[in-house]
Request: fold
Amino acid sequence: MSDRTFTLDEAQMLLPILESLLRQGINGKKTIEEVDTELQETAHRVFLNGGTLLNVVHLARRKAEREKAIRRVKDALAEIDATGVQVKDLDIGLLDFPCKVEGEILLLCWKLGETAITHWHGTNEGFAGRKPIDERISKAGKKRPT
Reply:
């Protein structure tokens, strides 16, 4: 895990790129789940019928799609991780950005569909512990005029 921290502005600027990567991961995960369901249903049908003719070309194509989707998900998550941002929940698209505020590490929290980062929580709290961004967080890491 990275030790990188973000200011609110830095995290905000990364959102468009991260949102795109997150959508790639979510879409890949959906493909994997769809193929898994199809393969389980096929196996169940074969079992119930005591065997059956299968379209092996179709099944092989679907398995190849699944493998590509796994690679896309892994690549998208690795790219997000390389930035220092934490993926907390791929199903709902939840990201945390470590932020240093008055010597303490907090997590700026963003969920897919939100237009901006507007909440944070402590490192031992989760999504349910989100609080609105306040002035001390929005000013953290900014240079003071001399």
